[in-house]
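User: My notes are a mess, but here's the protein and 2-acetamido-2-deoxy-beta-D-glucopyranose's SMILES. Can you give me a structure?
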Amino acid sequence: MAAPRPQKHLLLPLLVSLLLAASSPRGADAWGKEGHIMTCKIAERYLSEDAKAAVQELLPASAGGELSTMCPWADTMRFRYHWASPLHYANTPNVCNFKSSRDCHNNKHVQKMCVVGAINNYTAQLLTYGDSPKSSWNLTESLMFLAHFVGDVHQPLHVAFEEDEGGNAIQVHWYRRKANLHHVWDVSIIDTVMKDFYNKDLDTMVNALHMNLTNGWSDDISHWENCENKRATCANDYAIESIGLSCHYAYKDVEQNITLGDDYYFTRYPVVEKRLAQGGIRLAMILNRIFDKKEADTTMPLYVQ
Ligand SMILES: *[C@@H]1O[C@H](CO)[C@@H](O)[C@H](O)[C@H]1NC(C)=O
Ligand SMILES: *[C@@H]1O[C@H](CO)[C@@H](O)[C@H](O)[C@H]1NC(C)=O
Ligand SMILES: *[C@@H]1O[C@H](CO)[C@@H](O)[C@H](O)[C@H]1NC(C)=O
Ligand SMILES: *[C@@H]1O[C@H](CO)[C@@H](O)[C@H](O)[C@H]1NC(C)=O
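Assistant: No problem, the inputs look usable. Here's the predicted complex:
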């Protein structure tokens, strides 16, 4: 059945509100498109054979076999799946620590409706892959949501202060351009890094991050992968890291109307690069734990926290 059409006199207000929504702070994406694609491109290189096969089977045909093409999907669905909007982030009551029981809820105070709950939720759904009778979840969506939210939880300002909406309400200049602090971390720093160091080319940047994963950061990987929580993901820990980085880097020395330039950029972009790489490694680890048949006995089962 065709959806009822909005009546004419409703159409204009609808359009206006859509436009306003599109420019409203919380409409802002999590890592821009580029950040999500990079995180997933890194993850793809660390998938086990079993995980790769399962991902291939779950991806829609339009993905062309590449998980990374679907990683921005959740942002494109924010208007259609309005309920999923709070799943992209978590807010703290303006303090530098994160507590799931206090901070992981939507604005109607439904518990677990935040980025940490969502990662556990979609992980638990994907664990029904291969069940018979067939899982009742749409596991294609579960995968696309999970890949996106693991990226989001690594963007520091996605676990940040309620008062300033994760930096969305802090107006700044990024060099000469107007922006808000949240957007600087989602998009501007990445854009500037790509322009300065990587010929504006996403794959060149992914390769550089990958080089560091095999060299400079190689000792860190096992630490990043370390997830003590055998019963759920470690999304809670990633959120705790992010609020720490928000306080120590993103918010530090920032006030309304400030101009952020070289001093801020050169001390913050290494954090952004590391978080993109960490997100990729951890997404691969989560997918491997879910789909790896050989590992299943030792690290399973994962349950929602
Ligand atoms: C879990 O996933 C289902 C299906 O997408 C959704 O309806 C529900 O709101 C999700 N809950 C959380 C906490 O992510
Ligand atoms: C599962 O979700 C995808 C993405 O939203 C959609 O294209 C597909 O039709 C859904 N599959 C089923 C069986 O509903
Ligand atoms: C890679 O590591 C080198 C040396 O540790 C560092 O100078 C460089 O900024 C790193 N590159 C990335 C992409 O983080
Ligand atoms: C920031 O700038 C705007 C417009 O330029 C001004 O209205 C506002 O008072 C300033 N806020 C602060 C805290 O300086």
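The chain has one domain: 29-299.
User: Great, I'll file this with my notes.
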